[in-house]
Design brief:
Low-confidence stretches: 328-335
Helix content: 25-40%
Number of helices: 12
CATH superfamily of the largest domain: NAD(P)-binding Rossmann-like Domain
Distance between the termini: 31 Å
Number of domains: 2
CATH class of the largest domain: Alpha Beta
Strand order of the largest sheet: 4-3-2-1-5-6-7
Radius of gyration: 22 Å
Largest sheet: 7 strands, mixed
Mean pLDDT: 94
CATH architecture of the largest domain: 3-Layer(aba) Sandwich
Shape: elongated
Length: 335
């Protein structure tokens, strides 16, 4: 019998689907206060001994988050963790991988994140701030605006999120260059380039989207040299991890107009400190790390977990399994 550690509110939502696995599965329920029970009986944390676990936004955003992750780290037989997080840069995931735990992710956030990117770029191209100011002033002011059609987009990180952005931008007529390790062609990209060649792409890019994980290799990749190569009037969007950007170098670059605008949903320190100049910079749009927080996210993440659970119990390959080599040792926030 396989023991599954799961946050109790998540369990209640999919109880019937889990029951379909019968005696092969024994759910270990963690309550809001961090207590663990099996079949209604309380267990000491050291006796829980889960072999698999599902960590999702339910538990990440609860007071039980720390207890849940500690339980995973202390589980000697843990073999697989399904995460609802978009990335694995938090140190706990590296520690689990070092113990041989298989990690799988979910792309339930990708739909919302791709929508967020397009909304941010469209708002800048169409001079949304000026339109809203004109309306507030009751001023009948006609403002010309930029088209996405014919613009050049460089999407750094061409996984589920990057491809979602490409699909949407292409529908508006954009030219897409995807930047990723795998150099094979992709139907959603006009070109594929390696990360090592990114600097050569920046001078022609109207939009640069960061949608890749944080690692030792990508920390502060968007630095002074990066901004120095960007096109005047371009837009930078970050939905990856905050530490991909050297924020101290970003502010003077914005003042020079390259990039001309930054749409930022993630930051090196979260919440973003009140003294950060990014809050008040006229070229910056700040949101609180919620680009994937849509009504459909939870259901998509849940479906991936249920599919992977069936695959695991059947001894089949898992969807979206993370290569341990891609795990960064640098600290970051999950979400």
């Amino acid at each position: 019998m396989t023991r599954l550690l799961i946050y109790e509110p998540s369990f209640r939502r999919i109880e019937d689907q889990l029951a379909a696995h019968g005696s092969r599965l024994a759910p270990l329920l963690m309550s809001l206060d961090g207590a663990i029970s099996l079949a209604g009986e309380p267990l000491a944390a050291e006796d829980a001994n889960p072999q698999i676990a599902w960590a999702n936004s339910d538990v990440f955003e609860s007071s039980a988050a720390r207890d849940f992750m500690v339980a995973l780290l202390k589980a000697p037989r843990l073999q697989w963790l399904q995460s609802g997080a978009a990335g694995f840069d938090h140190p706990v995931f590296g520690q689990l991988a070092a113990k041989g735990v298989r990690l799988t992710t979910s792309h339930g956030q990708a739909v919302g994140m791709a929508d967020y990117v397009l909304a941010g770029v469209l708002d800048h191209f169409q001079r949304g701030d000026e339109r809203r100011a004109a309306q507030a002033q009751r001023a009948w002011r006609r403002l010309s605006f930029r088209e996405i059609d014919g613009s050049s987009w460089v999407i750094v990180g061409f996984g589920a999120v990057g491809q979602g952005v490409a699909q949407r931008a292409r529908a508006f007529g954009a030219r897409i260059t995807g930047v990723r390790r795998d150099q094979s062609t992709h139907p959603l990209a006009d070109a594929i380039a390696p990360l090592e060649g990114l600097t050569e792409l920046l001078p022609a890019a109207d939009v640069v989207v960061l949608a890749l994980p944080l690692s030792a290799a990508t920390r502060h990749m968007a630095n002074a040299a990066f901004f120095g190569a960007m096109k005047t009037g371009s837009v930078l969007v970050n939905v990856g991890r905050g530490a991909l950007i050297d924020e101290a170098a970003l502010v003077p670059a914005l003042d020079l107009g390259a990039p001309a605008a930054a749409v930022l949903d993630v930051f090196e320190t979260e919440p973003l400190p009140t003294e950060s100049p990014l809050w008040s910079h006229p070229a910056v749009k700040v949101t609180a790390h919620f680009s994937g927080a849509t009504a459909g996210q939870g259901a998509r993440n849940q479906q991936v977990f249920l599919e992977n659970l069936s695959r695991y119990l059947a001894g089949r390959s898992l969807l979206s399994e993370v290569d341990p080599r891609d795990l960064g040792a640098a600290p970051g926030s999950h979400g």
